């Protein structure tokens, strides 16, 4: 093929391979259960910073983070800086809305680092009270974030902070859980099990998607079986 003999084409292909790998690595980091929005957005911001770094490096013909392209590039890689710039612009457009909510995310994820004066008025007094409590600060540093908000941030003292935490902890950051659910649905009701009733199908899906592990031994002991004669 003539393309495989064209150094420019091979260099373009190398860039596509490298940038696709970087995007795939980000995609893998964003998958999985129990991913909260603030942690996912932190990974997005990290990748955007990488794009900015790569853009500047490529302008200086530095291909350090593009190993495949580096094998075929013998002249200049500054032209690919525009590609990183365009990708960075797309990320900024895509995540513009969530970036505007950064302060609210910080109040949920790092409440002891937020200046009360910069917070919404209904949260300012509660933030001051929270940040002044050394016991709560110790719990925040040593307990999972959701457990901290659920157990130690009382509804009586911090009603507005609790409501804010409930809002940001319940937002789905990705479609991972939905995709996982439909995958289990397809496995459960395949062409080999087409006679499964809707009621049993619903029960099976509830068990399959539950985070609670079934105690099969105890369930078996609770049921009596007909003894063969």
Structural commentary:
The protein has helices spanning 7-29, 37-59, 67-72, 81-94, 96-99, 102-109, 121-131, 134-142, 145-152, 159-169, 176-188, 198-209, 216-221. The termini are far apart. The protein is flat, with a radius of gyration of 26 Å. The mean pLDDT is 85. The protein folds into three domains: 3-99, no CATH class; 102-169, no CATH class; 176-211. Helix 2 (37-59) runs antiparallel to helix 4, helix 6 crosses helix 10 and helix 11 (176-188) packs across helix 12. The chain is mainly α and 229 residues long. It is built from 13 helices and no strands.
Number of helices: 13
Beta percentage is: under 5%
Which descriptor suits the 3D outline? flat
Radius of gyration: 26 Å
Mean pLDDT: 85
Secondary structure: number of strands: 0
Uncertain segments = none
Number of domains: 3
- DSSP helix fraction: 55-70%
Q: How would you spell out the order of helices and strands?
A: HHHHHHHHHHHHH
Distance between the termini: 75 Å
Largest sheet: none
The assigned structural class equals: mainly alpha
């Amino acid at each position: 093929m003539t393309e495989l003999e064209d150094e420019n084409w091979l260099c373009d292909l190398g860039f596509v391979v490298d940038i696709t790998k970087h995007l795939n690595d980000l995609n893998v980091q964003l998958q999985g259960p129990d991913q909260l929005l603030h942690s996912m957005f932190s990974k997005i911001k990290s990748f955007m910073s990488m794009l900015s770094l790569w853009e500047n490096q490529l302008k200086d013909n530095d291909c350090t983070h593009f190993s495949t392209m580096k094998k075929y590039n013998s002249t200049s890689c500054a032209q690919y800086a525009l590609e990183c710039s365009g990708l960075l612009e797309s990320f900024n457009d895509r995540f513009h809305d969530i970036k505007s909510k950064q302060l609210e995310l910080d109040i949920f994820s790092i409440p002891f680092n937020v200046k009360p004066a910069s917070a919404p008025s209904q949260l300012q007094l509660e933030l001051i009270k929270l940040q002044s409590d050394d016991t709560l600060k110790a719990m925040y540093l040593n307990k999972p974030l959701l457990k901290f908000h659920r157990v130690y941030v009382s509804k009586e003292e911090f009603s507005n902070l609790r409501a804010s935490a409930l809002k940001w902890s319940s937002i789905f950051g990705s479609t991972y859980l939905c995709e996982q659910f439909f995958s289990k649905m397809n496995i459960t009701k395949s062409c080999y099990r087409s006679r499964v009733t809707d009621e049993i199908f619903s029960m099976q899906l509830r068990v399959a998607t539950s985070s609670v592990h079934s105690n099969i031994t105890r369930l078996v002991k609770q049921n009596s079986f007909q003894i063969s004669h």
